[in-house]
Design a protein that fits this description.
With 365 residues, the chain is mainly α. The protein has helices at 10-42, 54-63, 68-75, 83-92, 99-109, 114-125, 130-137, 146-156, 161-164, 168-184, 189-201, 205-218, 223-235, 239-252, 257-269, 273-286, 291-303, 307-320, 325-337, 341-354, 359-362. 72% of the residues lie in helices and 0% in strands. Helix 5 runs antiparallel to helix 6, helix 6 runs parallel beside helix 8 (146-156) and helix 16 runs antiparallel to helix 17 (291-303). The chain is globular, with a radius of gyration of 31 Å. The relative contact order is 0.06.
């Protein structure tokens, strides 16, 4: 005869129902928490906090104001910038090198935005050594966008085989594609200048000269094409023809600052430094705002042991362009040479305010 099941008291039944409800509630809460966790894994990361507007960041960087580098880096973390705005910031980045800047540029080389990629290429070309340039830009020789590939070629064309390393053959192949594209297009002054550069790289000097001749027939006032011929003749050891070509250009355009600067650089190459100073000074007088001309004048003055005038030219550049890192670091070197260490400390302190991560500071310039 079987035993009857034990009967639970009302209190026991009530306690049991409470436990069941509690367990059910815990299960529901765990399911909700799990769902939120999965959502958080899938959700995009929160947008970085940006404390300045695009215009403010661009102004700080361009004018070389304290904190410019950090603001510039911060602005480049944004994901809502148009390609043209991002390219504008990357152009300013050339004055603010650092590991962070290099990381930003490396990322933008991989961005599927041709304008951004090409600007990153140009900025890197001013910032890193040739050997490093080949490693960074070399992969873009296979980029799906033709303009990006050709920008990469222009940046790498004059590097040595050692600097290019594994990318040497890729550069040659892409350069041939670039050449074929230029030849297939209706000729223009600029396209023929580019074609001449490619031909020179392949050792075809006469064809390069012919391309520049065509550029001048199409555009007789194209000073860049005329100067390219001057340089090509000089490289080929035809110094007299090179000088005559330059003299003819100057005769037709005596007030062209570009030609006066070219004359000064030509004279420097041929160890006529005193005469070179006259031409370089004339170029600066014709175009006072051109800091590249003023920089070359400073270097030429220094080469003649005219240290104080050279320093004054670099100081003038920094008055006009406080962000100009190239002029600042050269002036630091010149002040060191003259033993004026107080001025060195002032310049380095200003540089640290601009960009505390600048490699020049880390290396104890």
């Amino acid at each position: 005869m079987s035993k009857a099941s034990p009967r639970h008291s009302p209190a026991q039944m009530k306690a049991r129902r409470r436990w069941q409800l509690a367990i059910a509630l815990v299960v529901v809460l765990l399911l909700i928490a799990g769902g939120l966790l999965v959502h958080s894994w899938r959700a995009p990361p929160a947008a970085p906090v940006v404390n300045h507007s695009y215009s403010e960041a661009l102004e700080l960087a361009h004018d070389g104001k304290p904190g410019a580098a950090r603001v510039l880096y911060q602005q480049l973390t944004r994901t809502d910038l148009s390609d043209i705005r991002r390219a504008g910031l990357l152009t300013e980045l050339s004055n603010y090198p650092s590991p962070q800047a290099l990381k930003i540029l490396d990322g933008d080389l991989k961005r599927a935005a041709p304008l951004v990629q090409q600007t990153a290429i140009d900025t890197l070309a001013t910032m890193v050594p040739d050997a490093q340039l080949g490693v960074l830009i070399g992969p873009l020789l296979d980029d799906p966008d033709q303009d990006v590939r050709f920008s990469a070629v222009r940046a790498l064309l004059n590097l040595t085989p050692d600097d290019l390393g594994l990318y040497y053959n890729a550069v040659q192949q892409t350069a041939q594609q670039y050449e074929s594209t230029l030849v297939s297009q209706p000729p223009s002054g600029q396209s023929q200048i580019e074609l001449a550069r490619l031909l020179v790289n392949r050792g075809q000097a006469q064809k390069a000269f012919d391309a520049l001749d065509l550029a001048l027939k199409l555009e007789p006032d194209n000073i860049q094409a005329g100067l390219a011929q001057v340089q090509l003749l000089d490289q080929q050891g035809q110094m007299d023809r090179s000088r005559q070509q330059l003299a003819q250009l100057l005769e037709r355009n005596p007030q062209a600052s570009l030609l006066q600067h070219a004359l000064g650089m030509w004279l420097l190459r041929h160890q006529q430094n005193e005469y070179a100073l006259l031409a370089l000074t004339k170029a600066v007088e014709l175009e006072p705002e051109n800091t590249a001309y003023r920089y070359d004048l400073a270097v030429a003055l220094h080469g003649l042991q005219l240290l104080e005038p050279a320093q004054r030219q670099l100081e003038d550049i920094l008055q006009r362009q406080p962000a100009n890192r190239r002029a600042r670091t050269l002036l630091v070197d010149y002040w060191k040479q003259s033993g004026q260490l107080q001025n060195v400390q002032v310049l380095l302190a200003e540089l640290e305010q601009l960009n505390p991560d600048d490699p020049a500071l880390q290396q104890g310039l």
